Amino acid sequence: MKLKSIKLPPAKPNMTSMIDITFLLIAFFTLMLNFSQADQNQRIHLPESELAQPPEIPLEKVLTLQIAANEEILIGSTVLYLDDAQGLASGSQNASALPLSKTLDSELYIYRVKDRVDPGDITVIIRGDGGVSTGFVQRVIRLCQEKGMQSFVLRAKQVKF
Amino acid sequence: MTVKRKTGNPKEMTLDLTSMIDVVFLLLSFFVLTFKVTPAEGDFNIRMPLEIQSNAPPSLDDLAPVTVRLTSDAQGTLNGIWLQSNPLGVDLKGLRLSVYNLIRENDQISFQSAMKGEQTPTFNKSFEIELDCAPRLKYQYTMEAITAVSGYINEKGQSVKLTEKVKFKPPQ
């Protein structure tokens, strides 16, 4: 028996609803993209606090210092050391580490020349790891005080109890 | 002149969406892979100018800060809390209660009642706390102590501030 071959028309699935959903998903992810996370270093495990509140108005003129558990200080991605003793120790691990004091001087110089901001008007955000020693954090704060900075913000991870 | 009208069904116009869908899916996969839910962060504000050594006697308006001393063992674990000279063990809730009793202005409202959210006492705004922390103490304990002296959250979920004036004792 001879079979008749039937020519089917090409399949045209309706993609409209799928594209709609895809665009919605893209819009969602684009809106949720948080550029302020640039300051957040994944190595820093912030201590938790139920009372820590995000600032009511965004802070202006800020300098974010991140302190890792191994007493490494970071401004952005630049690794810094507090004093010569730490610099010698960290030098063997990270040759590109810079002294914090000189880096603060250059940051403050930029603020002073470019934005005409006094060091006293700059807020220092301390993102310290929960495992770092308090004495080290205090030494970092002390150095900032010596450079004329007065306002400090201790950052913590918000938890709900 | 007569215009010829096309009769019958016009040819269906088709748009080739393949490349657009490719790009859209690429974008979508990029966003899905780079998406990260980060926990919310909050701040404790500390105003701490460098103390200038002065021979002038302090004015009567300058109340001496109340010292909270935190000690640690060699591993940096909290092993003692002192409010002025009163030992409080390692009880941070006890520290909060002691600070509450020190700075409330009306003695009638108990801490238990305040925690239930039934009443909120007024607090002495000029009260300042100076943290004297052991150098080895892990920063997480310091932040817990700052949380304890800064305020409390009552059973209604309201945040009540005890004091905002917290500072560190200068390292020796």
Descriptive overview:
The complex is a heterodimer of chains A (161) and B (172). Helix content of chain A is 35%, strand content 19%. Chain A has 161 residues and is an alpha/beta fold. In chain A, helix 2 links the parallel strand 4 and strand 5 (98-99). The longest helix of chain A is centred in the first third of the chain and has 17 residues, at 16-32. Chain A is elongated, with a radius of gyration of 26 Å. The relative contact order of chain A is 0.18. Helices cover 27% and strands 21% of the residues of chain B. Chain B has helices spanning 18-34, 92-103, 111-116, 139-150; strands at 41-47, 66-72, 78-83, 86-87, 129-133, 151-153, 159-161, 166-168. In chain B, the strands form two sheets. Chain B has a five-stranded mixed β-sheet, covered by helices on one side. In chain B, a hairpin with a 2-residue loop joins strand 3 and strand 4. The N and C termini of chain B lie far apart (105 Å). In chain B, 22% of the residues are buried. Chains A and B meet through helix 1, strand 1, helix 4 and strand 7 of A and helix 1, strand 1, helix 4 and strand 6 of B.
